[in-house]
Amino acid sequence: MAYKFRGFDATRDLEQVVDLYNGVFGPLRPYYSWPVSVERFADKVLAHWEFRPEGLQLAFDGKRLIGFVLAAFRNQPLMEIDRVTGEWGPVFLSAIAVDPRYRRQGVGRALIERTVKFAKANGRDRVKVGTNPRAPMAFFIGVQEDWHDAHRFFTGVGFNFGGMCQNMVRSVVGFRMQESTRKTIAQLRAEGYECRAYEERDHDALVALLDDHGWAYWHLDLLSKVGRWTKTRPFMETCFLDCATDQIRGPDEVGVVMKEGKMLSFCAQTLNGQTRKTYLGPMLTAASARGLGLGTVALQLSLELAARKGADICDLWTGVGGHITHFYKKSGFAQVLRWLEYEMPLK
What we know:
With 347 residues, this protein is of the alpha+beta class. 32% of the residues lie in helices and 27% in strands.
């Protein structure tokens, strides 16, 4: 049977897309908040500043929606280094879903072909199955290691292995800062450092730290979150449908280390008041202040703040590597998932 493909039409397709999304993705992650409502999808995807209708392509069997793909690209890099590496340049495949009854019939391949056309039409040189925080409007954190059918699909349509990431979590119920960190804080304070929650007066110092390290895009997250860019959508609110919290709790979710008015380290948390989960990041320590334990201090300060707000679990997505994994393990995080990324170069 010949299936039909076309672009998304919000006036007639919205409910079907959300239903298919919930049907396909919901059972995969029972520990996330499901299902996604029509209202949330419209808010977090259709209202996203980087959403392009032509990037959302649909597949139909008659009037039945049997698949969709969402592709998007960033207009600027997350970090300045991404201009060098090209990480901001690909079209990111933020989601692809096919009704299980219609798999292995060429539907997914046809949707990928439409994503490739979308990428070429916008001058992009590759398509990436992206994960947080790279992919705008990401639906899923990536292809898990044991999703063998998904691995075969992506390699079969021309994608190459492009790296590995991990999901780490820890409970923050009754969180108590580690004694070693308390001693570090005492020593830092004796040397004139401030270790505390973010305050509005820290705005300019935060901007300076972000700018010094080429993190311009994170302004969309932090500066809106702490109340200065009220008309800008916070990054963490729009990145993952599940991460999104309808009420950003405020600046006291950011732990900072300051000295003489200069911000040397920060760690932000985004709390979902409905699920009581908090999502860690971004965090950054000034290059000149690394090796002093400031990152651990900012991290544990933010965990303490999140716990006071009623969070149960802290969740983070990060790379896989000895130093990265070890840093978070020292603060009680354990790996839950590992997933693969894929990339398709375009000729």
